[in-house]
Amino acid sequence: MVDAMNISVDAMGGDNAPAAIVNGCLLALERRGGFNLQLIGDQAAIRQSLDAYGYAGDRIGVINATQSIGGDEVPTKAIKEKKDSPVALGLGLLKDKKTDAFLSCGNTGALLTGAMLITGRIKGVDRPALAPMVPTMRGVSMLIDAGLNTTCKPINYEQFAQIGSIYMRAMFGIDEPKVGLLNVGTEENKGTAIVKEAYGRLMALDGINFIGNIEGRDLTDGKCDIAVCDGFVGNLILKCYESIGSFVFGGIMDIFKKNLKNKLAAAVLKGDIKALFKRFDYEEYGGTPILGVGGSVFKIHGNANAKTVMYAIDRAVAFTNSSALDEIRECFGRKDSAPA
Amino acid sequence: MVDAMNISVDAMGGDNAPAAIVNGCLLALERRGGFNLQLIGDQAAIRQSLDAYGYAGDRIGVINATQSIGGDEVPTKAIKEKKDSPVALGLGLLKDKKTDAFLSCGNTGALLTGAMLITGRIKGVDRPALAPMVPTMRGVSMLIDAGLNTTCKPINYEQFAQIGSIYMRAMFGIDEPKVGLLNVGTEENKGTAIVKEAYGRLMALDGINFIGNIEGRDLTDGKCDIAVCDGFVGNLILKCYESIGSFVFGGIMDIFKKNLKNKLAAAVLKGDIKALFKRFDYEEYGGTPILGVGGSVFKIHGNANAKTVMYAIDRAVAFTNSSALDEIRECFGRKDSAPA
Question: Are the beta carbons of B265 and A268 separated by less than 8 Å?
């Protein structure tokens, strides 16, 4: 292996492991240089998959894991008991600075819990958050938190805004990312007691471009770059978002295939419709950072295909290359806390 | 006027008042018989609008209101101070049994507050709820509460399930409507402390077909007939739902109109795409009942056009004709409470 950035990937998680993950890794390596990959999981299965794709390069290493965590396992229990699972191993390597990033398509709860317990929070960050990008009329916006924290304190909203702003600046080059607080109305006095207090804190916060409360439709309209909410709300919105997109596009695909007449007409429109689909394509947004932990940790969709894995690795490389992690440390006090 | 069901409509609320509302009323009267309408608002403006549409029948009455409540007014204050507004007058008529239903496109908060303060809750109902229908892959599902109660107690989820079940049985003929609890996972132990307690209550509740926790995507998939949640979550989901639909369909319409080639192809697909659009068409679901108050109260979209108003009136007539209100009273103890 050449001396370069090292990215570790859980080869066993998700619906299409290890083939889609191995394939995605190969696509990522083709796409850009400057990093090596480390696949963690059942060594024999990974080797078999690498052979099947005819890979003979030196940019992929394999680390054997004798255990794996299923999608239905209770996260805390699984992380504590399965120390030889890809997630526990990968997050441990990250903590020990033996890898630069870790990605997994597996059990979301286990990855989140592991990121907290093994890799540890950045000092001063009260609660890390899952921060996916969602498509909007103007591009994409970050939804933070989308499921790590079922309930939040006012300080969490404030920190999500800060961490999110650093990420959007570093990764999307947006100078003063607009932060909106998801609420049931735009007026200052809207929402629960906690959300109202969060509003006050965000208003008073320096270094953040807070545009006030935003409603559900404002998110889709792209009124802000970062939509701040608790993980209960964020998770529900994210899953509605994904499924409404599939619902509508599925309906359109059915129409396109309905009969010969439709098929011919669809052929004319295909390129344009594809471009529209692409804006809703979670393959490209498949890698979701867990922000606030002391390393680059990315969750990939459980049903990810090779392309999704490729884009996620791409994103992890960019994040690791960026100054975002250092800036978050800087923002909250420079040092990682001990794992909780 | 003939002796028939009487439906009162706020002629002044919403973005397109009074013309769209008057037009919608005329369409509703054409559509079915058995009821009369009463328009409440600026009498001169209403008369002018009726004249503009050339209405000369005897099924519409007009009640003058010297005040009106703007979209930005603080609901409680507006309802208390503007006793001669359409909302205050209409809900008062409903309370006094001088009308059978009241509909408004205006300030949602004022309508909800007015329904609580003027018309009053059904005795035993802790909190009424706003209960819109959202499109799903299998048809439509009710989302309850979608914005009346920012925070909820466990008993509220239980009552939403009961009230929602009565409505879906009476209005949609579904024998055992499936009730789902919106949550961040399907497992029993998911969610906030309140949602967990609501889960336990729903599990123990007789007469309800509770299918357990549902995620955001289950709502779109149509896994349940009634999705129960607090008003903060419900409002955000509803608005995302609406805007994601508009976003995707807007994108498709742009493609259809992009150039001559696309226009010709689109002409072939138009009928089918229109049918798909129709499933996402809030015009048909524009009338949303406020369930748990002692009368038929419907909120219509603020940007409703005449067709939306027509469908909402249609729905209010059906609801008033149904046994739903009596069944809700029966379920919770037979008598309306005094206005709070």
Answer: yes
